[in-house]
Write a structure and sequence with these properties.
The structure is a single chain. The two termini are 23 Å apart. The strands form two sheets. Strands 1-2-3-8 form a four-stranded antiparallel sheet, covered by helices on one side. It has a four-stranded mixed sheet with strand order 6-5-4-7. The protein has a single domain (2-152), classed as Bifunctional nuclease domain. The chain is globular. The protein is α+β, with helices and mostly antiparallel strands and 158 residues long. The longest helix is centred in the last third of the chain and has 13 residues, at 135-147. It has helices at residues 34-44, 54-65, 101-111, 119-122, 135-147, and strands at 2-8, 15-21, 26-31, 67-78, 81-90, 93-99, 115-117, 126-127. The chain is built from five helices and eight strands; from the N terminus they run E-E-E-H-H-E-E-E-H-E-H-E-H.
Length: 158
C-alpha cells in the first residue's frame, strides 16, 4: 500500500489518510487526529520544519541506535479501532512494536519502509474504479468519500 493522500471527512471534519493498493485499485481510508495528519502531510508536502517533529526524532534515534524499520503492518480492526505494528531490526535481531496506524504510517514514510495490510483489514478496503492519478482523479476520490457511508469503514480512535 502507499499513501495516496490526506483528506477530510465531510461529515465529521476529521482527517482521513487514504491508503491505496496500486495493483488491485483499492482504497483504505483511516480516520486520524489532526496532529497525526499534520505529521504525514508535512512529510508528503516536503514542508521545511525548523525543529524535528516527533517522527523525525524517532527516525534519528533509530538510526543512531542502528535500528531499521523493515515494514509497518496494519493488522486488525477491533471495536472500530485500527491496530498496527512496527517490524524492526537491529543487527540479526528482529522485533515488533505495537503502534497507532497513523504513527506507523508517518514512520514508514520517513524510513521509506513498506506499508503492509493484513487480509482482514484489506477486506474493508473500497474498490476504486477508473480513478487516474490526476487532479480529476483526486476530485473523483473526494466525491467518493462524500458519498461513502462512514459506518462502512472503521474509524481510527485516539
Amino acid at each position: 500500500m502507499w499513501v495516496a493522500g490526506v483528506t477530510v471527512d465531510p461529515m465529521t471534519k476529521s482527517p482521513i489518510i487514504i491508503l491505496r493498493d496500486k495493483e488491485s485499485r483499492l482504497a483504505l481510508p483511516i480516520w486520524v487526529g489532526p496532529l497525526e495528519a499534520n505529521a504525514i502531510v508535512a512529510f508528503i508536502e516536503h514542508m521545511e520544519i525548523v525543529r524535528p517533529m516527533t517522527h523525525d526524532l524517532m527516525r534519528s534515534l533509530m538510526k543512531s541506535a542502528g535500528v531499521g524499520l523493515r515494514m509497518i503492518e496494519i493488522t486488525d480492526i477491533k471495536d472500530n479501532t485500527y491496530y498496527a505494528l512496527l517490524h524492526l531490526e537491529h543487527g540479526n535481531e528482529r522485533f515488533v512494536l505495537d503502534s497507532r496506524p497513523s504513527d506507523a504510517i508517518a514512520m514508514a514514510l520517513r524510513c521509506r519502509a513498506p506499508i503492509m495490510i493484513s487480509p482482514e483489514v484489506l477486506s474493508h478496503a473500497l474498490p476504486i474504479e477508473n480513478i487516474e492519478e490526476s487532479p480529476e482523479g483526486r476530485d473523483k476520490l473526494a466525491d467518493l468519500l462524500d458519498k461513502m457511508d462512514p459506518e462502512q469503514f472503521s474509524k481510527y480512535k485516539m
